Structures are given as C-alpha cells and as structure tokens.
Amino acid sequence: MRKSSLFFVISFLFVLSSCTKVDSIETINPFSNGGKERNMIVVLSDIHLGANLSYAECSKNLGALEMFLKQVKASRNVKELVIAGDMLDEWFIPATTDIYQGKDQADFVKRIATANKGVIDAFNSIIREGKILVTYVPGNHDLTITAQNVEKILPGINQARDLELGLGTYSPADCPKIAIEHGHRYNFFCAPDPVSNQDIAPGTILPPGYFFTRIGVHSYMNNFPPAGDIIPAVTPNTSGNASQSLLFIYWNVWSRTLIKYTIPNKFDDKFIMTNMDGFKGTYSVNDILPFQNTPGGLIDVKLYKGIQDTWNQRQILNHVAVNIPVSQAIANAAKASESDEQAKSQYFLNPDSDKRIVIFGHTHEPKIISSNNHNGQKSIYANTGTWIDHNSVASTIMSFVVITPQNTKASSLTFVKLYNFEKEIVTKMAEDSLRY
Fold first, then answer.
1. pTM for this entry
2. pLDDT in tens, 156-189
C-alpha cells in the first residue's frame, strides 16, 4: 500500500512537473512587451514562397508561418512587421522549367499568391487592419520582381526599395540607428549585376547566383545523380595577369559547385531555360563555366564575360559604402561569415555610418553577434535565419528577430531577441541589448 502510494505521488509530481515545463515553453510570448505600448518590431526573412509547391523550398512550413502571422496580428504591442528579402522566389526553380510558362512576371507572382493563399491572406489581413505596418525589403531570390507586382498581391504593403531594382535598406520610424536589409548587395554572386550580359539580355540585372541556383535545383530534383560529365581542367594563366587570376578564382567556385551539385547532363546540353529579365535563350553549363583551350593559357567565359573586372563598378551602382576587394568577394561568397563581417564593415566600422543595430537575412544562419563600432560603442548584428522546410546550413528553421526599442528613461535599453517557431512552439535562441 505504501509503495503504491509513493509511486502514485512520484508519478503525479512527474506529470505535474512535465506539464509545468511544457506550459513554461508554450507561454513564451515574443510579441509582448509587458505593457500597453505598441512599439515592437518583428523581422523575418527568407520565406521563399514558390509558385509550385512540388519543389518550392517552403511548403511544409506554410501552416506554421500562417499561425505565426496570426499571432503577430493578435499582438497589442507589435508596431511593425518587416520582411527582409526573399519573400517570393524566382530562383529556386528546376533548370528545365520555363519560369513564366510563356506568360509574364505578373502572372508568375499571381501563381505564387494562389499556391500560398493562406500565408498571403494572413499578410493581407495584417495590412488591411492597419495597426501594424508591414514592410517588404527585396532580396536576391526576388531581385527582379517589381514593386507593382508585389503590390498586386499585397495591396498597401510598404516597400523599402532603393532607386535601383533589387535592393533596399529600411530604418523603422523613430529608430534611425537600426538598419534592416537582406544583405545580398555585398555578395559577388547575388548582388544585382546591371553590367554583365547586356549584349545578350539588355537591361538584365541577374547575377551568376541565379544560374547557380537553377543548376542546384536541377541536381536536387534528380536526387544528386552521378555526374554526367567531367569538369574540364583550368589552370592559372602563366602570364600572371591579375584579371586572369581572378577569373581562375571564379572558375574554382563554379568547379566546387558542380562537384557538390552533380547533374546528369553533358556540359554542352542546353537545358537551363530562362525567358526572364531580358534572357531568352536556353543555356548549358559550358555557357557559364570558365574554360581554357591551352593549359596555362587564356581563361575565358561566355556568360558574365569580364565579370571579374566589373565588381568595383557593381559596388558603386549597388551603393556599397565600403569597397570589398574582388578576390575576397569571389572567394568568400559562399561563407555566411562573410555576410556577418560585412555587417560590421559596412555599418559598425564605417565612420560614415551611425547605425548601432543591423539585421540581415540571406545566409539562413540565425544568430546575434555584438561588437564595438568605430567609436568604441557596443553594436548588435542579427541574422533572421529562414522559414524553408530543410535548412542545409543551420539546424534551425522558422526563426525571427524581435526588436523592442528603448524609451526615454536613462535606464531603458533596446532589446534584440532571436526566436524560433519550430513545432509551433516559441523558443528564445539568443538576446542582447544596448542603449544608443
């Protein structure tokens, strides 16, 4: 009897403690400041909504994203919701697919809205209510999607855009020390390229990362098959020409990509369909991959011819404040740490910048990093992560950042908190704070 009673008591306490633990997790409310003021800023990015859910990067997580947006709307404290790029996806599409299906971008964006109706409806519900300002900043996967076509599916959304298509930086109202952008303007393969291929596709701004992605999806859709061809060898040009050395680094990046993302095609097969942003043709790997006819001789490339020499021009056109050396930009393009470093270089260590909090997306790696700026003041960089179904670069998905600005009290701080929403349970991943 005593043993049974003791077992019952222990079991009851275990169940009680378990319930308490679950309740404590589930009752985290990232959208509450503990008061009545509506001042919180929620930032998410890299949703990657696609027009076809059979291959779109975000399909299984759409229900959770819809629930998340409904919780944002229900908050009495959220003032702004910012989408920091890659909301819509024109890149993550199989190489053999005609993106616009013989129509135009407006129809493509409409198909995205139809395929992701619950999420788009949730965004529109917040916009129509008018209590929370919803702001969209473009990323690289929605680089060429125009403001007009975004407005058609999200009427009334605030769009933070540069004059140049495909870029934007946003500082929320009354928070001039905060900068939010996608972060792709600092990436050699993802920043708009209005210089290359103008003879082939007049007016294009598509960078080579677009072709990277189309080939990568083609590999994924074919279950990363045995390689259908051998990468032709390229060796450094013995002339010592600086431009040729940079093109060799560019070839190396492409070579590593083709080793990782194997495709069943021969490299001269024309299988990459475009029909967007000025491009009309169907292209092969050989059209993109630098080549060399003689060992140690001239290295050349068809698409993006001379791209290694135009990076400085692109940076000026794309309003990059602090010049990034081209060799660094090419070699480090695939490293998330390069984006993290550019947040510091372009904002915190730049004497012409007064920003103290910078939020990027793009890398899919959620994090918060603090450092000192050029005046020795604490500054905070945060990356929002992503909402795609499978994140190959980090273990976390469905992450977001919440900023709670300081008030007029001298003791008040601006808080930056990083959360995730996996299994529809909010978990705080990291936080930091400062006063400016």
1. 0.92
2. 999 999 999 999 999 998 999 999 999 999 999 9
Joined tokens for residue 155:
């009427």
Higher per-residue pLDDT: 110 or 23: 110
**What are the structural domain ranges in the chain?**
30-189+325-434, 209-309
What is the per-residue pLDDT for 395?
84
Burial bucket for residue 331 (CB in 10 Å: 0-12, 13-18, 19+): middle
Can you list the alpha helix ranges (DSSP code H) found in 276-398? Answer: 311-317, 326-331, 336-343
Exposed/middle/buried for residue 15 (C-beta within 10 Å: 0-12, 13-18, 19+)? exposed
- Domain boundaries 30-189+325-434, corresponding CATH code: 3.60.21.10
Q: Token digits for 133?
A: 């300002």
**What token pair was written down for 177?**
């020390």
| Separation of alpha carbons 338 and 186, rounded Å | 9
The pLDDT of residue 21 is above 80:
no
Residue 138 contacts residue 90 (beta carbons within 8 Å): no
Q: Which helix (H) or strand (E) holds 7?
A: helix 2-26
pLDDT, tens digit, 9 for 90 and up, residues 321-338? 999 999 999 999 999 999
